[in-house]
């Protein structure tokens, strides 16, 4: 009885596992996938924390340095000839001497304000750095979406042809046994079937890599299988078509985070230059001290201060270096702005070239291809055309299908490149 139960339990567990895999499949539109990406991506969450870190540095810069308290000159035993002093507590303290002091460092030349200003610019830079990181990661994510849509559509085309050829192979196998057709035609069909199987296997391997990358970007479980809705494979191009390219070039400094970051870097170096100039003015340390039994007064209270004398070091080297950093950041800002403007023009022209190719294909060309394939298949089944003619058309059909899918994928990628270059979403 136990021998019969164990196989049943094993089959039940396999079925349950299969059900779980099926249940892990999720179908996402591009919009829903991006929402999930913005919520779950660990790299984005980690990068966003840099903004909080920078803001915490502002809090720290506002804090004054702590005062320093020191207690010294304490004698642990009575020395010969010690003068008797008033007791501190009970009989204790009649022969004890000690000194105490309190020191406070005071920044001069507005150093504290200048340090706060540096950290505030640093906080603004953290925000723009995050935006730039998000901008580049978005393009990578969206291109991955397009690759998945292309992969799924390609797989669908080949699966449909595989099914058609498998039906033909079964029918021809029967006809070969009956002697109605030649063995050569059957072998040619079987070879085509194997070619489709080989291509589908390559598509699946490519999809596995895309699935792995997408699950990492969306922070999903390894067992999840993602399907991207094919309905929005062609992007909305209205906003780009209505765009004035010259205005986009002129306004790039207001949209691209890396350009804004370069501008902030110049400001940051300017603040550091101001701070380095302030450092040539020495800070002051204020002191209040008390001495018991160590002077002509039994209880001495005194005030004082200390200051570095800028005889040798007036911070000239650091000031000069900070000045060069300001000039360097200005040049880098101008270079990046020129590069960004050139990228906008280049990516816009690339997008327009692919858009023109897509529009020249015609909206109904794909449907015409599918209908023509059905017509050729029917003609072949009715023996109105030869196997060679049919296979030639299937090859031409697949070639044209791949061109159409490649164009749609390229259209998405070129649009994302232009969005990335302009710094605008253009939705």
UniProtKB/TrEMBL annotation:
It comes from Flavobacterium pokkalii. InterPro entries: MdtP/NodT-like, OMP_efflux. This is Outer membrane protein, cobalt-zinc-cadmium efflux system. Coiled coil: none annotated. Keywords: Signal. It comes from the Bacteria. Belongs to the outer membrane factor (OMF) (TC 1.B.17) family. Residues 1-18 form the signal peptide.
């Amino acid at each position: 009885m136990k021998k019969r139960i164990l196989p049943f339990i094993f089959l039940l567990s396999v079925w349950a596992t299969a059900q779980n895999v099926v249940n892990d499949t999720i179908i996402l539109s591009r919009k829903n996938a991006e929402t999930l990406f913005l919520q779950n991506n660990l790299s984005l969450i980690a990068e966003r924390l840099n903004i909080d870190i920078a803001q915490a540095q502002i809090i720290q810069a506002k804090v004054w340095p702590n005062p320093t308290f020191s207690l010294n000159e304490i004698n642990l035993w009575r020395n010969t000839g010690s003068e008797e002093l008033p007791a501190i507590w009970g009989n204790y303290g009649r022969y004890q001497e000690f000194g105490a002091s309190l020191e406070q460092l005071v920044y001069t030349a507005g150093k504290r304000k200048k340090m706060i200003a540096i950290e505030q610019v640093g906080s603004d830079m953290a925000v723009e750095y995050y935006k730039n990181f998000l901008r580049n990661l978005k393009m990578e994510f969206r291109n991955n979406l397009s690759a998945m849509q292309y992969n799924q559509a390609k797989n669908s085309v080949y699966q449909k042809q595989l099914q058609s050829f498998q039906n033909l192979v079964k029918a021809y196998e029967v006809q070969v046994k009956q002697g109605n057709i030649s063995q050569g035609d059957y072998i040619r069909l079987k070879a085509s079937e194997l070619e489709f199987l080989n291509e589908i296997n390559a598509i699946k391997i490519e999809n596995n890599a895309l699935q792995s990358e997408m699950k990492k970007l969306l922070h999903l479980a390894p067992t999840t299988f993602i399907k991207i809705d094919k309905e929005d494979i062609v992007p909305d191009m209205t906003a780009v078509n209505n765009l004035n390219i010259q205005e986009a070039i002129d306004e790039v400094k207001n949209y691209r985070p890396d350009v804004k970051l370069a501008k902030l870097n110049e400001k940051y170096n300017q603040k550091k230059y101001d701070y380095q100039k302030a450092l040539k003015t020495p800070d002051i340390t204020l002191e209040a001290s008390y001495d018991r039994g160590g002077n002509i007064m039994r209880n001495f209270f005194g005030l004082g201060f200390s200051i570095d004398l800028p005889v040798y070091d007036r911070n000239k080297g650091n000031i000069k270096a900070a000045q060069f950093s300001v000039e360097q950041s200005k040049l880098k800002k101008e270079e990046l702005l020129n590069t960004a403007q050139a990228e906008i023009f280049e990516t816009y022209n690339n997008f327009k070239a692919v858009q023109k190719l897509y529009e020249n294909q015609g909206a109904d060309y794909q449907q015409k291809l599918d209908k023509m394939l059905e017509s050729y298949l029917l003609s072949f089944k009715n023996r109105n055309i030869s196997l060679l003619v049919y296979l030639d058309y299937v090859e031409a059909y697949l070639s044209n299908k791949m061109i159409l899918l490649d164009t749609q994928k390229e259209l998405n990628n070129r649009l994302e490149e232009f969005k990335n270059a302009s710094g605008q979403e253009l939705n």
